[in-house]
Prior knowledge:
79 residues; 3-stranded mixed beta sheet; single chain; globular
Amino acid sequence: xxxxxxxxxxxxxxxxxxxxxxxxxxxxxxxxxxxxxxxxxxxxxxxxxxxxxxxxxxxxxxxxxxxxxxxxxxxxxxx
Length: 79
């Protein structure tokens, strides 16, 4: 198993069969989408399912997270 960050992953010379993406931010979701579109099996580990579900809506409006958003347990999401 190898670990990459958002900079070093760009130098990867092959497509992995599977990938685990840690984080639910815009960059993590984009890399997950790229790998999934190319045929890799992708799993995302995110801090909050609620926030991951709101990512697309928030990213288009640049809205900050809701104030007082209660923390939720980490989640593993198949992508």
